[in-house]
Structure formats: structure tokens, C-alpha cells
Design goal:
There is one protein chain. The strands form four sheets. An eight-stranded parallel beta sheet has the order 9-8-7-6-5-2-1-10. The chain has a six-stranded antiparallel beta sheet with strand order 11-12-13-18-15-16, with helices on one face. A hairpin with a 5-residue loop joins β12 and β13. It has twelve helices and 18 strands. The N and C termini lie far apart (about 65 Å). By secondary structure, it is of the alpha/beta class. α6 packs across α7. It binds alpha-D-galactopyranose. Alpha-D-galactopyranose binds next to loops. Alpha-D-galactopyranose (GLA) binds next to loops.
Length: about 400
């Protein structure tokens, strides 16, 4: 009898703990899209800017193209009150976060915020360590839909346990929130985070350059791209590799370089979080961020990250499997001189078990069909540029 009771009790505890320790399902079934304040404003954010960005997300067509989450990064916090509640910086956000979230929601957007699993954020402001459940309740009350959770000042904390704790806190607070793990890939979150977060950063911070490296951390997007090779098996609907937010439009690269950056993020099924000041977008930048054919590759419901099938140093070919048995192929020139590509499609189709299928080639930047898989594809790719083809049945 006693034994039976113990078994019953253990099963009961197991079922209960499972019911409270899970992430919100059915969120981020395609890579999240939106805007985040960090890459263009750093900690210099305030209510007025965020409201204007919300207005421009509608005005520019960003919202209707799928950029739904407006996320405030580090710099909104001021301290904690005597009860441990997080206090917002009133100089920057005089009407508080709830009011701002309401405004963002009134524009048909979703609202996101930032915190840190350690004692402090990377800007030295209060982190959520020790306040996880309290903060999660506050976010739910404010109407938060997305939480980016950083990894500064974590001391000896275990990463998996720390992120699990906030996942459970969010779940308990009851408001569905996309949970964005920002641990920079240090403890290989792709191996442990599938049931914890909806996306996880795979590297240090992106910089607004082609291939620069910063002494104190951070690198250009092509170097981040290199680090995504091999991670494709970990990414899929509801759990994405995150190579960091977009730098498109921040001024450090040429239009072709931004086009290549955006194309490759779409090939990777990367979360598309714009990081530019969209109040001042040029038509060229708008053309990139709002290219519906590129976005469609990123948002393809199959959710497969592209794999690299050729790398000759300067010239790379990446292939992304799409739903409906289609494929996307990116021809990337990382070098300083033009490269003439010559693709025999039989080889590519065989590799992806689509031999015998006939496809039309859709150039997603020219917005026109440029041939079929019957013929060899011969084209010049400019330096620091890309051609992206969708193989359409
Ligand atoms: C870290 C993150 C960045 C940004 C800053 C904010 O560096 O990786 O994306 O959130 O902190 O301080």
C-alpha cells in the first residue's frame, strides 16, 4: 500500500512539474520578425522614439510585410523599488511601459522588452536574477509579447538552468511570450534550448560591416554566417538559430552588401529583427527590407535553414529546402572581383533528392524568371553581392 502511494505521488509530482515547466507552444512557428532598438539606438531609447518607430512600422509597410514585434532593448530600466518591482526610467519613459505597450498594440503590432539572466544587464542596469517570477508577472501585466533575455553578469550561473527558470516564470505568469535567448552561443544553446526558448543567439554581437572584428567582441555578418554551418539540424518551427539582428540600413555597408546580408539571413531562416532607424529609411533600404520574395524564403513554413554546398574561399553556394518541394539557391561572392557562376542543376537536384523535377528559376531580386533547370545557369556575381534564385515548379 505504502509503495503504491509513493508511486502515485511520484507520478503526480512528475505530471504537475511538466504542466508548469514548459515554454509556450504555437509561437514563432516561422522565424519572428520585427524591429529592435539596439543596433541603431543602443541604450539611447525613449518613449517618443519608440512611438514614432511604431508609427513608421505601419507607414512604411513594415508591419504588413510581417515585421510585427517592436522590441525595446537594454536601457529602459532604472532600478527596483522596496518590494523588488522593476522601475522604469521615468525620464525616458514618462508614461511607463504599459501605456507604451498599449500604444504599440493599437498599431496592430506586438510589444517586446529586454532583460538579463544575471544580476545586471550589459548596460549595468538591474537584471532579473532572483526576480524571475516577479518580473515575468510584471511583463504579463504590461502586455509584453516578446522577451529578449541576455547573459551579462551571470557569474557562475548555469545557462540552461537560468533560462529554464525564466521560461517557467513566463509560463506561470500566463501571457504567451516569445522567449528569445541571448546567450551568444557560449554554451551551445542549440543543444539544450529547444524546449526552453523560441530562438537563441548563436554568436556574439553583429557589427555593421562586411567582415570586421571587434577586440571586445562582435563581428561582421559574413563571419557570423560562417558560424551557422552545421547548426542547420537544430533549427525549425518554434525553435530558431538566431544569428543576431539585422544591420541593414545602419550606414556601414554598401547597398549590395546589405542586400547580401538580408538574403543570407532569409536563407538561414533567421529571425528578421530590423535594427535600423526606420523613420529615416532610404528607398534602397526599404526595397531590401520589404522584398516580399526574400521574406517568403525566410518565412517558408517548412522552416529549414540553408546549407552550404560549395565554398571556394570567395564563392559560396547555399541551398534552402522549401515547402512544395521547391528550393532556394544563393550564390554569394565574398571576394573583391566578379565571379562567373556556372551551375549544372542536375548536380544540385540530385543532392536534394529532386532529380528529374523541372523548375523555373525566379530571381528574387530582379523579380523575374531567368531560365529553368534544363539549362546551365551562367551569370556574373558582382563583388560582395549575391544572386538568389527560387526554383519554382
Ligand atoms: C548584449 C546583446 C546585444 C544587446 C546588448 C545590450 O551585448 O548581445 O544584442 O542586447 O547586450 O546591452
Amino acid at each position: 500500500m505504502k509503495k503504491k502511494l509513493i508511486v502515485f505521488f511520484s507520478v503526480f509530482v512528475f505530471v504537475i512539474s511538466f504542466a508548469v515547466s514548459q515554454k509556450f507552444k504555437d509561437l514563432a512557428l516561422t522565424p519572428p520578425m520585427g524591429w529592435n532598438s539596439w543596433n541603431c539606438f543602443g541604450p539611447d531609447i525613449n518613449e517618443k522614439k519608440v512611438m514614432e518607430i511604431a508609427d513608421y512600422m505601419v507607414k512604411t509597410g513594415m508591419r504588413d510585410a510581417g515585421y510585427i514585434y517592436l522590441v525595446i532593448d537594454d536601457g529602459w530600466q532604472a532600478g527596483r523599488d522596496e518590494n523588488g518591482n522593476i522601475i522604469v526610467n521615468k525620464k525616458k519613459f514618462p508614461h511607463g511601459i504599459k501605456k507604451l505597450a498599449d500604444y504599440v498594440h493599437s498599431k496592430g503590432l506586438k510589444f517586446g522588452i529586454y532583460s538579463d539572466a544575471g544580476r545586471k544587464t550589459c548596460q549595468g542596469l538591474p537584471g532579473s536574477r532572483g526576480y524571475e517570477f516577479q518580473d515575468a508577472r510584471t511583463y504579463a501585466k504590461w502586455g509584453v509579447d516578446y522577451l529578449k533575455y541576455d547573459w551579462c553578469y551571470h557569474g557562475k550561473q548555469n545557462s540552461e538552468a537560468s533560462y529554464k527558470l525564466m521560461r517557467d516564470a513566463l509560463y506561470k505568469a500566463g501571457r504567451p511570450i516569445v522567449f528569445s535567448i541571448c546567450e551568444w552561443g557560449t554554451t551551445k544553446p542549440w543543444k539544450w534550448a529547444k524546449d526552453i526558448g523560441h530562438l537563441w543567439r548563436t554568436t556574439e554581437d553583429i557589427l555593421d560591416c562586411w567582415d570586421c572584428v571587434n577586440e571586445w567582441g562582435g563581428m561582421g555578418w559574413t563571419l557570423i554566417l560562417d558560424k551557422q554551418v552545421g547548426l542547420e539540424i537544430y533549427s525549425g518551427p518554434g525553435h530558431w538559430n538566431d544569428p543576431d539582428m539585422l544591420e541593414v540600413g545602419n550606414g556601414g555597408m554598401t547597398i549590395n552588401e546589405y542586400k547580401a546580408h538580408f538574403s543570407m539571413w532569409c536563407m538561414l531562416s533567421a529571425p528578421l529583427m530590423a535594427g535600423n532607424d526606420i523613420r529615416k529609411m532610404t528607398p534602397e533600404i526599404k526595397n531590401i527590407l520589404l522584398n516580399k520574395e526574400a521574406i517568403a524564403l525566410d518565412q517558408d513554413p517548412l522552416g529549414k535553414q540553408a546549407v552550404k554546398i560549395t565554398d571556394t574561399g570567395d564563392y559560396e553556394i547555399w541551398v534552402k529546402e522549401l515547402s512544395n518541394n521547391e528550393l532556394a539557391v544563393a550564390l554569394l561572392n565574398r571576394g573583391e572581383s566578379p565571379i562567373t557562376t556556372k551551375i549544372n542543376w542536375n548536380w544540385v537536384l540530385k543532392k536534394f533528392h529532386r532529380k528529374g523535377n523541372l523548375y523555373k528559376l525566379r530571381d528574387i531580386w530582379k523579380h523575374k524568371f531567368v531560365g529553368s533547370t534544363k539549362e546551365i545557369f551562367k551569370k556574373k556575381v558582382s563583388p560582395h553581392d549575391v544572386i538568389v534564385l527560387r526554383l519554382v515548379r
